[in-house]
Amino acid sequence: MGWWVLHVDLDQFIAAVEVLRRPELRGRPVVVGGDGDPGRARQVVATASYEARAHGVRSGMPLRVAARRCPEAVFLPSDPPAYQAASARVMATLARFPVRLQVYGWDEAFLGADTDDPLALAARIRRAVLDETQLSCAVGVGDNKLTAKHAARFAKPGGIHRLTRDTWPAAMGAKPAADLWGVGPKTAKKLTALGVHTVADLAGTAPDALAGQFGERAAEWLVLSARGAGETTVDTAPWVARSRSRETTFAADLTDRDAIAGHVAALARALGADVVADGRRVTHVAVKVRFASFRTPTRVMKLREGPTTDLDAIERTALAVLDKFDLGEPPRPVRLVGVRTDLEPP
DNA sequence: TCTGGGGTCCTAGGACCC
DNA sequence: TCTGGGGTCCTAGGACCC
Q: In what residue span(s) does the UmuC domain sit (predicted)?
């Protein structure tokens, strides 16, 4: 028997859930995001169906751009409770297999399995998810989380693929370093500036040569990742939120201090109510303000009286945190306010 | 046709204490 | 007379992911 890590990744998850309850949409371009009105500004695509992606629609793209690229698309509002429910059904199916299960967001999971035939296991899992939830997924098989994750990308949509440290160089070496899981745009840009373009380039770089730009630990991690090394442990402990936040982007900028404070207070109260309903206590309150310039400072304060469930205290603290900002006089235009509560471990 | 929302983790600097 | 080193707490910001 051998230890394998599998990564299960649902195909176009949010769009697929919508199609499931509106079968007439199957095969059509579907775009989910915001309130579903592509005529309104400041809303972006959460997920596009493959049919919409074929027209160049991408997640994160403004809905208006999506509507322009794909006028025949069906636009739907985002419905998180529906996706949460569908996700729970998928995870319940996965949990019935003799594996270690780590839920990794709505539409992803890592599975750790002791088996001699991981591909057969992957096929059984894919079939079970499809039969029990009518949702299609890709399954990546790897010797660690990184290889499993990338294997799933190769498998998408709806397939099964195996990738290990042995096959990694041939499969990944020529790809841009930016394709690596954990390497975002900022890191990619720095790497390019250092002459490191591909995964193979990065794999062949001495960590010391990168430490100046990224720090020792991150440099080490980058090079190891480029060589296909990753975590092999699958953590089965249920996920426990460390924070919870809510933010609102306004259709039109706010320039009135009382209006800004009113939104912060309302967000803080609503958030506090959610957190308390979950049986958690708040340790810190953070406030985020995004100006029209897109500069987005954040301020945070620890609750004076210690962890609390007192909504008045949470709201009061949020307003005190807001006072730490220099909003300008008169206030500079604000396009977003957000409130985050940090939570005491249960 | 300007750029959502909800998360996690890491680093770094200053305050404060010994 | 002006200079240590370590440890912890706190806050701000960066970066990434789904």
A: 5-184
